[in-house]
Write a structure and sequence with these properties.
The structure is a single chain. This protein is of the alpha+beta class. It is built from two helices and four strands. The chain has a single domain, classed as Alpha-Beta Plaits. A four-stranded antiparallel beta sheet has the order 2-3-1-4, covered by helices on one side.
């Protein structure tokens, strides 16, 4: 998505909800591009993007409301570099 605003959303999950169920819900949210299951202090890492801050805020709110997401931290992408 050219000129899109991107965020990584790190989430901890509720152990009472199967991770795959949460992942499936997250992938249905418009703007969510990819979800990784992790080890460590975060359980899930979500990559999302949108053409505007207002729309991106809606994506973040939808992730927060997703069944199985206990808490989240949003990391706004300022610049992207690749080889």
């Amino acid at each position: 998505m050219e000129n899109a605003i991107s965020v990584f959303i790190g989430a901890t999950s509720d152990e009472k909800v199967k991770t795959i169920e949460t992942v499936q819900q997250l992938l249905k949210i418009g703007g969510v591009q990819k979800v990784w299951e992790l080890t460590g202090s975060l359980d899930l890492l979500v990559l999302a993007s949108s053409p505007s801050v207002a729309q991106l805020n809606s994506v973040v709110e939808a992730v927060r409301a997703c069944r199985g997401v206990r808490s989240e931290t949003t990391y706004l992408v300022l610049e992207s570099h690749s080889k």
